[in-house]
Amino acid sequence: MSMNITLSREDVVRLCERVEGAQTRAYAIPKLTDEYPNMTIGDGYAVQLELRKRFLAAGHKQVGWKAGLTSKAKMIQMGVNVPSIGFLTDRMSRPESSAISTFDLVHPRVECEVAFVMKTTLQGPGCTAADVLAATDYVLPAVEIIDSRFSGFKFDLPSVVADNGSSARFVGGGRARYAEDLDLRTLGVVMEKNGEIVTMGASAAVLGHPAEAIAMLVNILAELGENLPAGSFVMSGGITEAVAVKPGDSIVARFQELGSVSMRFV
Ligand code: 0L1
Ligand code: MG
């Protein structure tokens, strides 16, 4: 992946302000490459870094990271072929079984993910799934509520990365388990919307093993000059495609061995 930055500092700040406005005031914007067709993935991460700095300066606390676009189903659904990463803050977290407002979201969709909590810091490059498992404290089931801010879901990788990988909200829950007590590759998951099964899959859909997605995330962080600190909460990416939600919908994600995570939208 090329982390080459072609945008000027002024353009990075301009695009960051555009994305920040769309995220905090919940409106759709055209994909950034309409105006900057030569934007690279590195440019996307430069905008994302600027956004992270602004949120942290405003008092948000970073709690971890998310890997995105890590399953074939997601890549096909979104028409991209490389995974992405984004940061997670305390403001995005919602309790299990809570009512989640859609008023401050653009087009929310939900994904079932395995989340990892790290006990030791990981540093790439060259991080492997085995390194990830050795550094993991425990895993737990999670639902990510993604919210691409781009009109008509028209986007490409540089735009998605700049928009922090569509990160919006997340809910961790169920039962925390030690990774060594599970076969993390073959965990089944079923998502129900309003009592009906809408999608299902197995965790191997995420790059063959969810720990592979965390290793990829650590290696992307290394390219950005960062590590994955101990204590981080990290989501490994949707096992199935994302499902749209609207006010009135209730979601239950049932994970084999890990219990379930539920929420409703208002
Ligand atoms: O969490 C993710 O898989 C990132 C998805 C980015 C694109 C989208 O909005 O679906
Ligand atoms: Mg996701």
What features would you describe in this structure?
With 266 residues, the chain is an alpha+beta fold. The protein has a single domain, classed as Alpha-Beta Complex (Fumarylacetoacetate hydrolase, domain 2), CATH 3.90.850. It is 26% helix and 27% strand. It is built from 6 helices and 12 strands. Strands 1, 2, 4, 5, 6, 9 and 10 form a 7-stranded mixed β-sheet that branches. A 5-stranded mixed β-sheet has the order 3-12-11-7-8, with no helix packed on it. Bound molecules: hexanedioic acid (0L1) and magnesium ion. The site of magnesium ion has 8 residues, from β1, β4 and β5. Magnesium ion is lined by residues 66, 68, 111, 113, 144, 146, 237-238. Its EC number is 4.1.1.77. This is 2-oxo-3-hexenedioate decarboxylase. InterPro entries: 4-oxalocrotonate_decarboxylase, Fumarylacetoacetase-like_C, Fumarylacetoacetase_C_sf, Hydratase-Decarb/MhpD_sf. One of its GO terms (cellular component) is cytoplasm.
Secondary structure: elements and pairs:
Elements: H1 9-25, H2 41-57, E1 62-68, H3 72-78, E2 84-89, E3 99-100, E4 109-118, H4 129-135, E5 136-146, H5 157-162, E6 167-172, E7 188-193, E8 196-202, H6 210-223, E9 233-235, E10 243-244, E11 250-255, E12 259-265
Parallel strand pairs: 1-9, 3-12
Antiparallel strand pairs: 1-2, 4-5, 4-9, 4-10, 5-6, 7-8, 7-11, 11-12
Helix pairs in contact: 1-2, 4-6
This protein binds hexanedioic acid (0L1) and magnesium ion.
